[in-house]
Amino acid sequence: MRVIVADDAVLFREGMARILAEEGFDVVAQARNSAELVGLVRRDTPDVVITDLRMPPGFADEGIEAAAEIRSFAPQVGLMLLSQYVEVHHVLRLMEEFDGAVGYLLKDRVSDLGAFAVDVRRVAGGEVVIDAELVSRLVGRRRERDPLAELTHREREVLSLMAQGLTNAALSEELVLSPKTIEGYVRSVFTKLGLEPGEREHRRVQAVLRFLRWQ
């Protein structure tokens, strides 16, 4: 699997490239900033881009802006964004504007090489991967008039794992429940959140968006 890595910190960038190589990835190029990243992808399209969210010149959202530009001309490329910070608005943008094959992980997650490699491959395969730490922090927060209040503990657990990008099959394995039982919980979540079947909206994505906004 061919990968391009982008980060302004040379030590982190080189370390990332070495880690990926050890996990069987082919790191075809490295970028120091968002403009260089976009140019590299235009010249030699990889399977996945792994980029820091904050890069020069502004150290704000250059990584996600580069990801949006890449998605506009190379929609088949998986996009994995890394950050030192938990920033919910960036996660919401990924969920709303990108049609799958995206991920948001905290940089600390990279220390678990096996899990990181799995997440990169999931993004390359079209899945959405959200850092478990982000989801767990959101779960711990509460708001008045919570629209998720009708969900049972198990239904909230299912929705929390859905927010991390787990499919029904993965939910079944994670919770040690039959696929049919998982399907029942997912249907119940959709029903309680008022998400009716429709051609224009993906109910799974809409459920996760509500979860992220109201935690």
TrEMBL record:
InterPro entries listed in its UniProt record: CheY-like_superfamily, NreC/VraR/RcsB-like_REC, Sig_transdc_resp-reg_C-effctor, Sig_transdc_resp-reg_receiver, Tscrpt_reg_LuxR_C, WalR-like
Superkingdom, natural source: Bacteria
Domain spans labelled Response regulatory: 2-122
One record GO biological process: phosphorelay signal transduction system
Keyword Transcription regulation among record annotations: yes
SUPFAM superfamilies linked: C-terminal effector domain of the bipartite response regulators, CheY-like
UniProt-recorded Gene Ontology molecular function terms: DNA binding
Keywords (A to Z) from UniProt: DNA-binding, Phosphoprotein, Transcription, Transcription regulation
Protein name per its UniProtKB record: DNA-binding response regulator
Protein species of origin: Streptomyces flaveus
